[in-house]
Amino acid sequence: QLQLVQSGGGLVQPGGSLRLSCAASGFTLTSYAIGWFRQAPGKEREGVSCLSSSDNSTAYADSVKGRFTISRDGAKNTVYLQMDSLKPEDTAVYYCAAIEGVPRASIHVFNYTMDQWGRGTLVAVSS
């Protein structure tokens, strides 16, 4: 059974950091591009970051560029989203998603139909 298991998240003060994890079960993440998305209360889901399946290229939404970093650990079959300098407007449920065969990352990947989704994890940024 193909699954993406998310962990991390929680409550953090503005300016703080969190790391989200997205571990694949039943398939190998190195063959897939990974996207991180978020949905804030009352808002539509938006793409945050993506990592390609082939050349390890990355892409970020303007709102998180310079603060968030996506990475992959092939040995652990896990993708991470390191979030630094968090702001209250980063508060949302964060989802990871996988799509096969995207050799180069771009923000257009956020509009692709993903093959698999994680269940989401809440990130709350508040003092």
Gyration radius, rounded: 13 Å
* Average predicted local confidence, pLDDT: 95
Q: The biggest beta sheet, please?
A: 7 strands, mixed
Number of strands: 11
Please give the alpha-carbon distance between the first and last residues. Answer: 40 Å
Uncertain residue ranges? none
Give the amount of beta strand, in percent.
Answer: over 45%
Helix share, percent: under 10%
Order of helices and strands: EEEEEEEEEEE
Q: Globular, elongated, flat, extended or rod-shaped: what is the shape?
A: globular
Structural class comes to: mainly beta
Q: If helices are DSSP runs of H or I spanning 4 or more residues, what is the number of helices? A: 0
Gist of the model:
With 127 residues, the protein is an all-beta fold. It is 0% helix and 48% strand.
Give keywords.
127 residues; mainly beta; seven-stranded mixed β-sheet; four-stranded antiparallel β-sheet
